[in-house]
Amino acid sequence: MIGNILTQYVCIRAIFYLTTVCTSLTVTLVVTLRKFLSLVLSVWYFNNDFTSMHYCGALFVFVGTLLYAEVFPSRSSAVKMAAGDAVAANGIISLQSKNKVK
After folding, report:
1. CB of 58 within 8 A of CB of 36?
2. How many domains does the chain have?
3. What is the pLDDT of residues 43-81, one digit of tens each?
4. Tell me, what's the pLDDT at 89?
5. Are 65 and 33 in contact (CB under 8 A)?
6. Same domain, 66 and 95
7. Relative to the CA of 11, which of 27, 51, 86, 87 has its CA 20 to 30 Å away?
8. What whole-number distance in Å separates Cα of residue 44 and Cα of residue 36?
9. Do 55 and 82 sit in the same domain of this protein?
């Protein structure tokens, strides 16, 4: 029981710290992932079945996490990155042409 109290204390302290350094959406995502991992560990430890609804929920959690983390670049961010590269390249070309004039 004391071990449970200590781990709960550490968990709550970590969440309080996280709320001071991250956005509320990030904190919610971290708590959701923690609960999901707790569910998976519970299913494994008690040797219960992982049903199709569990798989569906796991898919939602992982896809939501990946989308929030922007692992898959969106089309608009790819365009912004390409535009930024073009501006950077133009800046380099402009600097090179100024150096040639001197």
Report:
1. yes
2. 2
3. 899 998 888 998 998 899 888 888 888 777 766 665 566
4. 53
5. yes
6. no
7. 51
8. 12
9. no
